[in-house]
Amino acid sequence: MPNIEIIRCKTKQYTIHQNLSDFFAILIFTCATIIISIAVALFLLKSPWYGLLGIIPLLFFRPRDLIYRARELEEKIGLKGEIVNSLQLSRIPKDSKENYSQELIQAFIDEAATRIEKIDTRRFVDRGSLALAARFVLIAVAFALIQPAVFPERFWYSLNHRIEYNVSPGSVDYPKDTQADVALQIWGVYLPKIVNLRLSAGEETTRQTVSVQDNIARSTVTVSEPLIYHFEVFEHKTRKYELYPVEPLYIENLFFHLRYPAHTKLAEETRTGRQLVVPEKTVVYVQGRASELLQAANLDFGDTLALTHEGREFHGEFVVTASGTATLHLRARGELHEGIRIYAIPDLAPLVDIFYPGTNVNLPYDMKLDVGIRCSDDYGLSAGTFHFAFEIDTTKLVALKRGAFEDTVYILWDLSDLGMLPGDEVSYYVTIRDNSGQVTKSNTYYVYFPTMEQMYEAINEQEAMLEIDIEDMHTEHGEHIKEVARIQEKLMKERELSWADQEKLSEAIKEEEVILEQINQWQTELEETIEKLNEGIILDQKSIDRLNEISQILEELAPEELREALENLRVAMEQRPGDMQKALEQMRQHQEELAKALERSLEILKRYEQEEKLRQIAERAKELAEQQVQIEELTEAEDGLAAENQQEVDQGMEELIDKLNELAASEGLEEEIREALRQMANEMQNLKSGSGKDKKTGLQNLAMNLEQLYEKLTQGRFANLRKNLLESLKQIIETSEAQEKLINDGLKIDPDLQGKLIQATETIAESLFAQQTKSLFVSPEFGKGLARATLRMEQAQKYHDNAKVGKLRATEAMRELNLVARDILFILARMKQDGSSTGINSFMQQLGDITNSQMSLNQALMGILPIPMQGLSQGQKKQLQRLAARQRALREALESLRNEAAAGRYQDVLGDVIREMQEMEEDLFQYKVSRELIERQKKVISRLLDSQRSIRKEDFAKKRKSKPGQDVRERASPAPLAQELGEDELRELLQQELRKPYPEEYEIYIREYFRALLEEQ
């Protein structure tokens, strides 16, 4: 190969490789510019085709010629023009004008060829631009990825520019000058923050920028002239819509012709306006005229009613069934929505009330009940009916004023024809019908022929409610005491009260007066209850006695002194501010007395409740024992009935266990009784899983043990009270003797010794207050008497230097002590008469119950007379059968009582009464009712009452003890009593007290005390 070809081949090889390297570099660079152009176009939300601008660098690319590359190669190899010169010399023709030497040229070429022959020119190809272009591409790619990473929604939208939208309201008509909302709702992957709203009115076009919130761009425009609008979103434009103003549609006149329901008896009438107040079921004929020709007319009132329209007139008819807003829709070129407020007055059902007696009542003594009925209706009354049910349902018409809006009617209801017996009840109510046929029923009330058990339950409930009320009152009264004490302390410090404190004090006075009124109200209610029991068909003396005891408690709760103190404080606040301190002191003192009385009442009521609950539990246990005995007597054929009855007994045992545990957990119960109750509850729990025979024996033993426990509780409390009173009496007498000795020992009162007696008296007072909370026998007057004695002692101690005044006060203190001792003696005598250790009280109680039941039976028998001429009715025969069964039960009870040891020598008397009762029983079973039978009934009652009096007198006679007189030690006489107590009166009092059966342990005190009083007189 010629040397020049070697040079040319080497140079071409380098040129080709270098040009390819530069081409690929510019190509890669062009790709980078395209990527950047596309990214910028997408970011600007332009078409991706804008990326073609990146091709521009490629368009400017031009490859280098051979000579240019030869020079580059020479520089890289280190030659100095040999390659370029060789290439140029090789092009000189042989016959050139210059006539260059071909040998020299060839020699130069050969030398240059020799130098580059073994050189690989590809090593000198510069690829740096290719690497730089590659780095630029990476930068472009990174730049392009920023947008999808940071603004992905914007990126995806820019790829296709897809967005959906909806324009509202579109092209519509509006009343002129109406404020209309135009809105653009947008959906898409990327939503703009703002859009443009173009508005064209006439030749004027404006642009508004509207923000997008929750995918909606909204703007308000005033439609006063034709208005063309469209929205612009990015490069999108919505179609153009037009809002056209029209004159408003209105109603020129509107009338409502009303036809009322017939039962209202109202005349037809026509009304205007946009509000109707009409009765339900009123027919309304609506008629009106609009301002333009109508295309449609509807009335929307629950259902849509199409109105008839002709030109501008419209009319229609509907019925009012409920209140609401009726909307009148009129459409012409514009639309009108007119609201009409309708108030539908319902035809109310008639009102009826049995206002008298207005509650469930017991059967009156005369078996006649006044019933007061009050009724009314909005459109008039039509008829009334009185309903009552006893064995059968019966109705009677009520005489009403027909058509009247209200009426009051009184009915005298005679229940004597019903043949009611104790335990029966009759229900009654009234129905009233109005002019529209609606019927209303009154509350149902009952008339009870009460039994003894129901009376006891009512009394127990009244006691429980009273206990709760007194406990609440005690808490409230304690707060009042604290407030008054605070005000009193402030008055003592500041000598006057602020307006706020005066208001608080006035409020405290009012609240205290409310408490006193509440106590009076309780007492009035108890008196009414006692009066009802006295007037009732069945006379329950036991319930009356219990209520009298509670009434006595309430009498002690509301002293007149507290009322007077409240009134004095009120007067001092209004008229004599200087006396306020004294009035406050009096009020506070009486408040504390009331607080103690409330505390005492609570404790006594709790003790009553404990004793009564124990008695009821004992009675319930006895009933369960009797039921278990009856179950054991059932035959095998009656297994189903036995199982049912056994389930009832088991349930009763469970209730009995709960009651035993509840009573055992009550506050203030003696620990011995508490433990006994818990033990009985445990025994009952174990007994539940036993056999029927075990249950019978266990229940019988439980009933007997509970009765004994009841006696133990009541007698134990009685004995403890008596013991404590005797101890207090002894202490009072000793204190009185010491006070007398103090008076007689010197010319003046010894203040130290008097102070010790004051402490002793206060200790006795505290002891008596503790007993006062346990029994009604211990009166609060004991504490007041001791308080007066203490006050006199303190005065005697204060004036000990003044012999006359000091001894006078000391003598008065002794007199107060003696009076308290006398009162305690009286109370001990009453307690002795009230209690009995022989068991006669139980016997007398049972005999009294039988007597009361016989009296009740006699009264029921008298209600059957006279016998009608046509003979006894079926109802009267049934009533006589029930009375005969009651007579048999009374006879059997008296026979059982006759066999008790307490009957003694009166068994023969009771035997005669039993025979008489048996004969009356047979007459009743044979329907032999006559005046003779009534007289025999009265005779039996009389003999029962005589038996009670005789046995009671004998019981007292057995208790009397006589004891011969004996000498007693001499002692100084006590302070004199009031002058109005003369010698004869004191002597008579002494004889009365000595005739009473006092115990030996304090009989000596009675004799000494009254003998000293007589000697003083």
UniProtKB/TrEMBL annotation:
Residue numbers spanned by region Disordered: 955-978
Transmembrane intervals: 20-43, 49-67, 132-151
Keyword annotations: Coiled coil, Membrane, Transmembrane, Transmembrane helix
UniProt keyword Membrane present: yes
Annotated coiled-coil segments of the chain: 580-690, 877-937
Protein name as it appears in the record: DUF4175 domain-containing protein
Taxonomic lineage: Bacteria, Bacteria division WOR-3
